[in-house]
Amino acid sequence: MGAIPTAIWVAKIVNGKDYDIRDFGSKNSGLTNTFRVLGVKPALPVVIVDLLKGFFAPTIAIWMNEASKANGGSDFFWLPLVCGILAILGHSFTCFAGFRGGKGVLTAFGVFLAIAPVTALLSFAVWLVLTLSTKYVSVGSIGACIALAGLSLFGYLEPDLYPHDKIHTGILAVAWLVAVFVIFKHKANIRRLLNGTENGFGKKRKKV
After folding, report:
1. How far is it between the farthest Cα atoms of the chain?
2. Residue 136 zone, left/alpha/beta (φ > 0; ψ -120 to 50; rest)
3. Which spans are transmembrane here (predicted)?
4. pTM of the full structure
């Protein structure tokens, strides 16, 4: 599910089967580059699908685990976490497009909406504030990852999901893994930010 290369397929639908969104703009097959290169309308299905594939991968696993427990089976509590990780890896290294996918921010947001919704929404708020204030999506994404890792230390943010302990170790580990992974995927953006050449909304990109 995570490996569905939404931006790549949408770009081909819009501009023909030989068109590859990874040849234009930031060379990334994610929402931001789709919006910049193709505009708002093609970006909308990318938002919807990339978010939902991240959300439904762990959600389906949660349903399966609940069914297992209801029928006297084992408690596969780890299954939603593993499915969430696989969805993000599938997005970033999609087998449908030469293992060159996106950075996983939107899909990761969908994953955490399913397994830790309060933490996910607070991290999204950080992304929104940073993106609007700096005009750089990359700054918002990196900041949101840092917030995700930090907020995951406070398990009481999800009291309805995990009332038995204040810090849910599985979510904590996944949050830190995802945060490090997504920030690493932004290494080129970090270099451009340091060089002052990052492309931001409402900003002219500096030439080097």
Report:
1. 63
2. beta
3. 43-64, 76-99, 105-129, 136-155, 167-184
4. 0.90
